[in-house]
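Entry 12.
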Amino acid sequence: MDLDGVLLARHGETDDNLEPPRFQGFTDTPLNATGRRQAADLADAIAARRTPIGSLWSSDLSRARVTAEIVGDRVDLAATLDPRLREGFRGRWEGHLFAEVQRDEPERYAAWRRAGPDFRFPGGESLLEQQQRVSAALSDIHRVGPLPALVVCHGGSIRVMLCASDSRGLNAFHDFQVPNVAVVSL
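Predicted 3D structure (tokens):
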């Protein structure tokens, strides 16, 4: 997939990103004070780019939307919201600590750690479904532009897209580290 000119940025920090981490998924977790500072730093970095951003897009979840709004205020662009850019739907794991899930559902947790296209969150979506959803959104963004486009979304959404160009596919999901406000080009 040719997505030249589309940059992906992860949202700023939320309390659920802190140790011990929780599964967030579609849960609308707000940025914390550190996340707002990170978003301001991201805004400064985007404003300092040699090539200005032509359009700004975001997941509709508040942690991404507010990050995009902070960037948009700095570069004078309004974010277009697209729910297809959301984090993966983690089903019944949402809101639970990773350690709780590992303790209570060790086999399913181990399957998640192996990842792959067939892994499905209990009561949620599969990694492949998330990848297809995010890929469709990014293809539309690439087509509509204007480019370069900055897309503020989520760690899992970025990771499934990095897997799309990796020979191991979705089996590589956990091999990619995407810290808060990291910017990735595909």
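Annotation: The longest strand covers residues 6-10. The beta strands are 6-10, 55-58, 79-81, 149-153, 183-185.
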